[in-house]
Amino acid sequence: MFTWGQTTPATDCEAGLLATYYRGYFYDDLSFFARAKPGIVNRAVNELNFPFGQTDMFNVGDVAVYNSPGNPDEFSATYTGKLYALTGGTYTFYLGSDDAASVWFDQDTQPTVVNVGDAHGYREATATKKLSAGFHTIRVFYGEHGGSQGLVLRYDGPDMIQQVVPNGVLYTNRNGNPSPVLTEFELNSVGQQVQLHWTTATEHHSKSFVVERSSDGVTFEEIGSLAGAGTSTQAHTYDLIDQRAPLGTTYYRLRQLCGTQAVYSPIKAVEVKEVPLQVSLYPVPNNGTFYLRVQPALPQTATLELWDASGVRAYSAPLPITGQPDVQVSPNVPIGLYTLRLQMANKTIVRRIVIGH
What we know:
Blueprint: E1 6-7, E2 17-23, H1 32-35, E3 38-45, E4 49-53, E5 65-68, E6 71-73, E7 75-85, E8 89-98, E9 101-105, E10 113-115, E11 123-131, E12 134-144, E13 149-157, E14 160-164, E15 170-171, E16 182-190, E17 193-200, E18 203-214, E19 221-232, E20 236-242, E21 248-258, E22 261-264, E23 268-272, E24 278-282, E25 290-295, E26 300-307, E27 313-321, E28 326-329, E29 336-343, E30 348-355
Parallel strand pairs: 1-3
Antiparallel strand pairs: 2-3, 2-7, 4-13, 5-6, 7-12, 7-15, 8-11, 8-13, 9-10, 9-12, 13-14, 16-17, 17-20, 18-19, 18-21, 21-22, 21-23, 24-25, 25-28, 26-27, 26-29, 29-30
Organism: Hymenobacter aerilatus
Domain PA14: 17-169
InterPro entries: PA14/GLEYA, PA14_dom, Secre_tail
């Protein structure tokens, strides 16, 4: 059972928004929130992702009326905090709700996007908003009058696919004037690899940054991680290379482990195009040791063979390609002219080479 005016404790990183819940429906009248007595005050929520349904996903207890078990009705809410735009530009916001909801930024006198009334089911309204890079005050008003409920806030923007607004760009502003954490997150396709670069302005209880990859922007897998800076007010820069990036459009996000809280960056996409395989040998002639230059140097284990002029295989060994373009080879074979065969995952390369002076 909830106590009227109950305040919930702070989270580790203050990511997300602060929710305050009220008994009763506000009927699109924002003055309701100044008059009504709050039942739950400043509860931290990670993101506004309460999918449409008849379940108690809002977890408001006796602030709501339950006309059927697990189906809260007749309550209203405000969600407040800061949104950090990594890049300045035009953003599109998608507000899905059942019933009324609206999103307001900074000192605007009109909502950016709004769903009015209660005589409708779940529906989504869209609107665009120009945001400069940096912090913006965000306020979301919501009310549930009867039947099913739901509230989802999504966006897309510069270099960003449509997605639920992640908690990594939302700040509770519990203590006023928050310092940004993630200030830059960029992807760059180089060859058949993807370079990920991100910067932070401050970090709080930051254990690590986990890089996650997806083929559809929905289901992600971990591909690497870097240690965080703990608690720091200094800027930090991070770089990681995905050496096994699949061809086509691939999606990436960061998962910061911050105390006991997981904080997610926006999802970004990059297109990886196939690069023709090139293999060169040097020096020629040589003293018995030579180098293979393989580009793109995708990590794999190939097989290297040397065949002498009489058609006899003189050398065979696995050749690890670790992501560096140049691989040293010392086959310890007699001086002579050889046919080199490099058997890779999807291709066999044949070259002629003179071993020894």
